[in-house]
Amino acid sequence: MGARVDETILEMQKKLYKEELIKDLRSKHGSQFYPFCIEPMPTERDRLIKPMTDADRALRKQWLEDQKLSPREPVDVPEWTRKNIFRRVYHGFFDGFCNVFKPILVGSLFDVLINFRGRHARRHFAYIFQKSLYLILSYVPCGIKLSTHLG
């Protein structure tokens, strides 16, 4: 017969094996394979640690071009978007209501948002800031102490 292994050592080995298995599963994020980066030279450090060759530059350029979305993306697949029965019930009415007005509003609303963000954003921000400051100062009494703990 062989040498008998102590029970405490067996328990320690089982515990270590279980911890290693859980750690392995967490690092795989639910897959059977480990995650890996498909981007060539993802960090700036990788790009600066040694000079890039022309092939590396071409590979990086191709990667960046591949990340651009086509005009038809993102594709909305209703079968892929899972909703439970309660969400389907109360979303049904509002989705139908929105689908009626979507062709009308999408173009004009998008133009308004782009114009607000681009050309007139500073002017609108200054106007809102000025009105907010006026309201705050007009309704705060003059005798109020903001820092009472200082004296």
Automatic annotation (TrEMBL):
InterPro entries documented for this protein: NADH_DH_b-subcmplx_su6
A Gene Ontology term for the protein's cellular component: mitochondrion
GO term, biological process aspect, one: mitochondrial electron transport, NADH to ubiquinone
Record-linked Pfam families: NDUF_B6
UniProt xrefs under PANTHER family: NADH DEHYDROGENASE [UBIQUINONE] 1 BETA SUBCOMPLEX SUBUNIT 6
The protein's name: NADH dehydrogenase [ubiquinone] 1 beta subcomplex subunit 6
Species for this entry: Schistocephalus solidus
